[in-house]
Specification:
Blueprint (H helix, E strand, L loop, with lengths): L5 E5 L3 H11 L5 E5 L2 H10 L4 E5 L7 H10 L8 E5 L5 H9 L4 E4 L4 H32 L14 H28 L4 H23 L16
Helix pairs in contact: 2-3, 5-6, 5-7, 6-7
Length: about 230
């Protein structure tokens, strides 16, 4: 069973968190609340998130400061951040949001459909990356000579394991290709397009490594692409 992605919602106003939950509930993912920047940073210590929706105006540690802390941590610096703000002080204020590491900057009131669509793109990219990490782990197991896989716990012949890995990778490749076409057809965020391209490059590297293991390929153990 594919695990649900976690989405971090950060806002000091309970009514705003409730509204975000209502908008994003249709995505059927795990929504995690944080009522302050400090609470958000604590949540990020233990859980992995697909995307963060971060309110700018909060007492104490505001959204900009919270984002700066997130981007300084190696574990969390690549998590996409969408800033939400009820005020707009012009281009300088928006630039500050992007400079803090945000992939998007949305002013309230916002279109619920647009917000949900933006978040869904990052959730899909996150899920594809999770699948890619799984394929890389299984392939490493084969390279290390493990004839037993985490594919049900039974011993498998190398050829059978390779065939199963290839089929699993093909499914991820098909989904990634469909996602890339969707991003090409829509006015997608540049960050989402770049992340999708990065994912496709990693999939290509993993496919080459897997092909090198096929009987008759004539190659030694292939180096695996980093899943990050």
């Amino acid at each position: 069973m594919v695990q649900k992605a976690k989405i971090l919602l950060v806002d000091d106003r309970p009514e705003n968190l409730l509204a975000l939950e209502a908008i994003l509930s249709a995505l059927d993912q795990t929504l995690v609340r944080a009522s302050s920047g400090e609470e958000a940073l604590k949540a990020l210590l233990t859980d992995d998130f697909a995307v963060i929706l971060l309110d700018v105006q909060m007492p104490g540690m505001d959204g900009f400061e919270t984002a700066a802390h997130i981007k300084r941590r190696e574990r969390t610096r690549d998590i996409p951040i969408i800033f939400l703000t009820a005020i707009n002080h012009g281009p300088h204020h928006t630039f500050r949001g992007y400079a803090a590491g945000a992939v998007d900057y949305i002013s309230k009131p916002f279109d619920p459909w647009v917000l949900r669509a933006k978040v869904s793109v990052f959730v899909e990219l996150y899920m594809k990356n999770c699948q890619l990490r799984e394929q890389a782990a299984l392939l490493r197991l084969q390279l290390e000579g493990g004839g037993k896989a985490a594919l049900g716990g039974d011993a498998k012949e190398p050829a059978g394991l390779l065939a199963e890995l290839s089929a699993r990778l093909a499914a991820v490749e098909e989904q990634a290709e469909a996602l890339s076409k969707q991003l090409d057809d829509e006015s997608a965020d540049a960050a989402a397009v770049a992340t999708a391209a990065h994912l496709e490059r990693k999939l290509t590297g993993l496919r080459r490594a897997l092909d090198a293991l096929e009987p008759g390929a004539g190659g030694g153990p292939a180096s695996l692409p980093s899943p990050n």
